[in-house]
Amino acid sequence: MDSQSTVRNINMIKVVPAILENNLNDIKKRVEQVKPFVDLIHLDVMDGQFVPNNTFNDPAALAENKLGIKISVHLMIAHPEFFIKKWNLDEVETVFVHKEAATNLNEAISLIKSINKKVGVAINPHTSSYDIKDYLDQIDELLVMGVEPGFASQAFNSDVLAKIAYLKKDRPNLIISVDGGINMESKNKIIKAGADILCANSYIFKSSDIKTAIDSLKS
């Protein structure tokens, strides 16, 4: 990739704090920590089936207790088709479903469109780019997992860099976000591969200076 392309990606990069908590109060605390510095959060929702972990999974509670910020909902749950419409909340901007979890990905994509949300599809590190290519023209954002989904503080899997680069070359206008293992060591490689959005949890929330942590991922 030439230097001009690298500069373009860095200038356009967006950092979105990823929030992975068990209850609404802890989510609110995390939101208050980052709200002065970002306009969007990435909310991880896990069911203990598709991934070996459980997190907050109560859209009705969010409807009653607004967070005051736009949300990308990352449904790391089995059979997401049954739950998509429950996330038709005012603050939800994008709904992500996993290619590996959806019984019928076309149906899931149609359901997200039916509630007028942006369509996001997530793929795990070992899912081939060929398995997702037929769906790319139907979605707004592709989320490439840099770790196996389920837990924070995992090391970034560098094997996904080639996949990001291939997909970005194939679909230059596709927004590609990366979630998992984001830190100062991995972020430049991810950006150079073609990512547009970095979703970070541990690097941001374990920092003593959250603003500086967010800014450092952009710079």
Task: Describe the structure in your own words.
By secondary structure, the protein is an alpha/beta fold. The chain has a single domain (3-218), classed as Aldolase class I (TIM Barrel, Alpha-Beta Barrel). It has helices at residues 3-12, 24-34, 59-64, 105-114, 160-170, 187-193, 202-205, 210-218, and strands spanning 14-19, 40-46, 70-76, 92-98, 118-123, 141-145, 175-179, 197-200. The chain has an eight-stranded parallel barrel with strand order 1-2-3-4-5-6-7-8, surrounded by five helices. Helix 5 packs parallel to helix 6 (187-193). The radius of gyration is 16 Å and the shape is globular. The chain starts with a helix and ends with a helix. Mean pLDDT is 92; it is low at 1-9.
β-strand percent reads 15-25%
Mean pLDDT: 92
Oligomer: single chain
Q: What is the count of β-strands?
A: 8
Shape: globular
Percent helix among the residues?
25-40%
- CATH superfamily descriptor: Aldolase class I
Q: How would a crystallographer describe the biggest sheet?
A: 8 strands, parallel, barrel
CATH class: Alpha Beta
Number of domains: 1
* CATH domain topology: TIM Barrel
Tally of helical segments: 8
Q: What key attributes describe this structure?
A:
globular; 8-stranded parallel barrel; 219 residues; 31% helix; alpha/beta; single chain; disordered N terminus; TIM Barrel; 8 strands
How would you summarize the topology of this molecule?
Blueprint: H1 3-12, E1 14-19, H2 24-34, E2 40-46, H3 59-64, E3 70-76, E4 92-98, H4 105-114, E5 118-123, E6 141-145, H5 160-170, E7 175-179, H6 187-193, E8 197-200, H7 202-205, H8 210-218
Parallel strand pairs: 1-2, 1-8, 2-3, 3-4, 4-5, 5-6, 6-7, 7-8
Helix pairs in contact: 5-6
